[in-house]
UniProtKB/TrEMBL annotation:
Residues 25-67, 518-556 are annotated as: Disordered. The gene is HrSMLP1. Residues 27-56 have a biased composition (Polar residues). It comes from Halocynthia roretzi (Sea squirt). The keyword Signal applies. Residues 526-542 have a biased composition (Gly residues). InterPro entries: Protein_DD3-3_O-glyco. The keyword Signal applies. This is Self-marker protein. Residues 1-20 form the signal peptide. Keywords: Signal.
Length: 658
């Protein structure tokens, strides 16, 4: 076991291995923002450690044309529909695809042998889901929420000898409904107590607390960021169970994929020490032990858990569980990593659960160093995520995160470990000789950042069962909007408005789910940090608004008159948020043109939401909602269709066309 642990420690150091930023553009990355009017975020450690510039990120969406304020129910959560069964994962049919877009500052991609880059890199995409709650923001320590305050959640540590009720009381007092939450309180409390992996290379960095997993080379002082565990954040694949499910690892070299696939928690069980509270108090959520020997010495049980998509409680025996259920999913009988039970201090018992699909691994897309922009092909760096299929048909509340890890070849990333710490191959700001007598030059090296992990996360979103009328084999493409209010300098390192993806290509009969979110507080005011403040744009200051109208060609800036619109001819509606039936092509056109302000043309069809009844839409969409809940259209007539946004498409200033 010691050898396996040692090997994991060595190889994991590859991903911990100087400075770059990572910003998710679609879905909109938060970079720890909530609803600030300022260009800078208010609290850099609110939810997670991004290592990013304070100016990055997007505010949480607002549901209406008013700010959500302290009412989280008035925030807008993007809602995507799950895939069909995994029987159809190889072919397009049955998949729901979401295009994840991002920018990373210091480059990535390129084959090490034939197309070397200036650094090594890996990009890791993961998500975390839980059953959606009818309470938008419960006052607990486990439910995902954006919060209504920009303050960080509280944390105060108890003695490990405390009884269970003391931990319950402390968790309940630390967590508040108005504070954002991703990882549960119990997993962070565990992280503060668990012994860190001492097989890792820490260079010249001295750990403030030599024993805890909150102390890493990149976070030697154990600084807290929400309830994120620093050791889990800084290394991949992680060697203990985690609440995150792997989507994809975009590797510097595809030759590494067999390793990542084998070590992913999606495929391999991970161990942790399970101890019990005194007086039959139930399962402890923590242990100081990080290996089987230390666990046995602490009178614990070293237990290996498996990652699960969700439980399958309808199957109560191993035989029933592992039978072929004809749905393409992999069911397993064993010990699932059930964070709900851990949060309730309950023992996890063998049960039937659905395994997540294997992590997707491919070469990282190429991007150049010192640049937050597009890749080689002129489009945003992206990955098409096939959303999961949940057989329970329960709606899920989720978070998406993306991590960007860069390293160098100045020391061997595979064979450099803790044994090299005493004589680290890299030192702080070393002097090098250049041949001239007595002449040294200083290098800029911070061993805490040589290499480094960056990340971004989106705001909470939901994944729902497919609605009636959308079959299990329908292919769904999501069409969204990226960017925020301001000119190219004011928005940086976010982007100006555009559709995402900007040029979707679909097959005849595919469904397109059109949906977007925006904020009413993107004022980009002071403090502006090291960038320009201001929110250049149309309409009411600080507000995001979008619509979609057909145009004739991509180089034209006028939409087609309604009588010449052909984009929606022959289109059938798979689903619409309003639930209105029998929408005509003209109804669809007016819904998208008005950002959902109007729901149809005539009162006889949609009552007070009709064009001929409702108060007039302001011509710059000021009274339209910031977020559009969506419509799903089945395009049946082949062709190329162009569209634009009337408010934001401003020739010579910004282009929002698709």
């Amino acid at each position: 076991m010691k050898l396996v642990f040692f090997v994991v420690a060595i190889v994991a150091s590859l991903l911990a291995l100087s400075s770059a930023d990572m910003y998710m553009q679609n879905p909109r990355g938060s970079n720890n923002r909530l609803n600030e009017n300022s260009a800078n975020r208010s609290t850099a450690n609110r939810m997670f450690d991004s290592q990013n510039n304070n100016r990055g990120g997007y505010n949480v969406g607002d549901r209406t044309d008013k700010k959500a304020g302290n009412d989280q129910a008035k925030q807008y959560r993007m809602n995507y529909f799950q895939s069909g069964t995994y029987l159809t994962q190889v072919a397009p049919n049955g998949r729901t695809e979401l295009t994840v877009e991002w920018t990373n500052q210091h480059g990535c991609g390129g084959n090490e042998d034939t197309d070397p880059h200036k650094q090594n890199c890996n990009i890791v995409l993961q998500y975390m889901c839980q059953d959606n709650s009818s309470d938008f923001a419960p006052d607990d320590g486990i439910t995902i929420r954006a919060g209504s305050s920009t303050a960080r959640s509280d944390y105060s540590r108890l003695s490990s000898a405390s009884l269970k009720q003391a931990f319950i009381n402390r968790r309940n007092s630390n967590t508040r409904a108005d504070r954002g939450l991703n990882e549960p309180w119990v997993t962070y409390d565990d992280c503060t107590r668990r012994e860190r992996n001492k097989g890792l290379f820490t260079a010249t960095q001295q750990m403030a607390n030599k024993n805890a997993a909150i102390n890493t080379r990149q976070n030697r002082n154990g600084n807290r960021n929400g309830y994120e565990c620093p050791e889990e954040r800084d290394y991949y694949p992680y060697w203990h169970p985690t609440v995150w499910t792997d989507i994809a690892i975009l590797a510097q070299n595809e030759s590494l994929c067999s390793y990542y696939s084998a070590e992913s928690f999606n495929s391999r069980a991970k161990g942790t020490c399970v101890e019990q509270f005194a007086n039959n108090g139930g399962r402890k959520h923590f242990s100081e032990a990080n290996n089987p020997a230390a666990c046995a010495a602490a009178n614990g049980v070293w237990t290996e858990y498996q990652s699960m998509l969700e439980l399958a409680p309808q199957f109560t025996t191993p035989a029933a569980c592992t039978a072929d259920h004809q749905d393409g999913l992999t069911y397993a009988w064993g010990l699932p990593y059930d964070i709900v039970k851990i949060n309730a201090f309950e023992n996890i018992v063998p049960a039937c659960f659905v395994r997540p699909p294997p992590v997707d691994c491919e070469a990282a897309p190429w991007s150049r160093s010192n640049h937050l922009g597009n890749g080689k092909d002129g489009v945003q760096l992206n990955y098409k995520w096939t959303l999961p299929y949940f057989p329970s048909m329960n709606s899920k509340r989720c978070i998406l995160r993306i991590r960007y890890n860069i390293s160098t070849d100045d020391y061997d990333p595979y064979d450099t470990d803790a044994t090299n710490n005493a004589q680290s191959p890299v030192q702080e700001n070393p002097l090098v000789q250049v041949g001239a007598a007595g002449q040294d030059l200083r290098l800029a090296i911070n061993t805490a950042q040589f290499g480094r992990t960056f990340q971004d996360r989106g705001h909470p979103f939901t994944i729902s069962p497919r609605p009636t009328g959308v079959s299990n084999t329908d292919h769904i493409t999501n069409l969204n909007v990226r960017g925020k209010r301001g000119n190219i300098v004011q928005t940086f390192p976010a982007t100006e408005y555009d559709y995402a993806p900007s040029r979707p290509k679909i097959e005849q009969g595919d469904l397109v789910h059109i949906q977007w979110t925006g904020s009413n507080s993107h004022n980009n005011g002071a403090p502006g940090g090291d960038g320009q403040t201001g929110d250049a744009g149309e309409g009411t200051g600080g507000t995001d608004r979008h619509n979609l109208l057909q145009s004739g060609n991509p180089d034209e800036n006028f939409p087609l008159p309604i009588e010449k619109v052909t984009m929606f001819d022959g289109v059938t509606v798979g689903w619409v948020a309003s639930g209105i039936d029998n929408l005509s092509a003209a109804d669809i056109a007016v819904i998208l043109a008005s950002a959902g302000y109007y729901q149809c043309m005539e009162t006889t069809k949609c009552g007070a939401e009709a064009v001929d009844t409702k108060a007039q839409l302001q011509n710059q969409l000021n009274n339209a909602p910031a977020s559009f809940e969506g419509i799903m259209l089945r395009f049946n007539t082949p062709g190329t269709y162009y569209y634009l946004c009337t408010r934001n498409n401003n020739f010579t200033n910004r282009s929002q066309k698709g």
